[in-house]
Amino acid sequence: KILNHLLYLVNETKNFEELINILVEKRVFNDFMVKKIQSQNGNTEKLHCMYQMIPKRGPDAFKKLIDALNESGNEGLALRLKSNRTLKKNPEEVDASQFRSPPHVNGENELQNSHQPDNILDKNEVYSMTEVPRGYMLIVNIYKFDYNYQEKRDGSEKDVAILKEVAGEFGFKVEEAHDVGAEDFMIFIKTFCDDKKPKNSVIVFLMSHGKQPTELATADGTKYYSPTVDIIMRDGRTVSSDWVVDQFNTQNCPALAGKPKIIIFTACRGDTPDKGITIKADAVRLSSYPITSDLLTVFPCLPGNVSYRNDLGTFMVQEFVKVLRKQWARKDIISILQEVTANLKKRFRVSQGFMIVNFTLLGFNKKFFFKRVTSEEYEQILKM
């Protein structure tokens, strides 16, 4: 089935990076195979190589491909392959009602979903996400470090690429900072927060190595880690996660007063793997705001533990994007993060350890739902 429709599959497959990540997760490909695919020139050659390899990957590979296509936004291709019908060159011949998940911004109409929050919750219980743009996405990625102070973060460029795709799909304007030192990073954040221009929301992705937090002790000598993590910048200097959070409070960032602010740190919080433990189991509109409110902070792991990454990016970003694209119309941000945690637990390996997503609500007292943009809204954002 695959080789008979190879040309069509290569031409019509979208979200290649997400698709191959899912196939790795389903153990269709190993790291060596992924490197072979990624070594090809351009997406067309990569897809051609990938699809040619799948028939050689065992009796379950076809079913896993169908599942991966569904999970990566290629439901039309999955349906045609599964039903063994002739694949048609004209994408308009694919019945839009067959799609289970909303299409990406490519001129198609956005699906209406009976689970949309507007239909089931009071407007005072949900952050408004209908404005254009929906908000801002700040992406800070430290890939390399001066004087080889830290190892390069190979794969992090894949995180940046897929996050920019997601920002476009969900109507966020992107501002980026790459391989900056501590001072330039602080200027980047403060410049955004000092801007008085009205903003609807912000999502910050801060991706780098993290420095082990201070080990503290209670009165009885019990040791524990500070929840703060020091983020290492290109020049080897660090910036505290607490400093970053403080910049987005109402006092320092008044343009986002009463608006949702989500800060996602993808950095280690120590160097200890979480190996787990085996046990036996039993069968009204406000005119003033608190200094810190409407803020959600997210870490990929618990204090003292490590966060994992491979050549395809960080596990946290991979899972977040996968779940977001699949569940955006049904789940709010907290439910999405809970599913991300469940998925990361399934990726546990004895040689590594668990990753437990750790998030904190600071006056974040409404539901936050992502909402995809229409093609018209997308064009409007591009002109801003």
UniProtKB/TrEMBL annotation:
Residue intervals of the Caspase family p10 domain:
285-354
- Record domain Caspase family p20: where: 133-272
Q: Keyword annotations for this protein?
A: Apoptosis, Hydrolase, Protease, Thiol protease, Zymogen
Q: Which PROSITE patterns match?
A: CARD (PS50209), CASPASE_P10 (PS50207), CASPASE_P20 (PS50208)
Q: Which InterPro entries match?
A: CARD, Caspase-like_dom_sf, DEATH-like_dom_sf, Pept_C14, Pept_C14_caspase, Pept_C14_p10, Pept_C14_p20, Pept_C14A
Q: Which Gene Ontology terms describe the biological processes this protein takes part in? A: apoptotic process; proteolysis; regulation of apoptotic process
Q: What positions does the domain CARD occupy?
A: 1-84
Q: Where is this region: Disordered?
A: 90-117
What GO MF terms are annotated? cysteine-type endopeptidase activity
Q: Which family does it belong to?
A: Belongs to the peptidase C14A family.
Record-given protein name: Putative caspase
Q: What is the lineage of its organism?
A: Eukaryota, Metazoa, Ecdysozoa, Arthropoda, Hexapoda
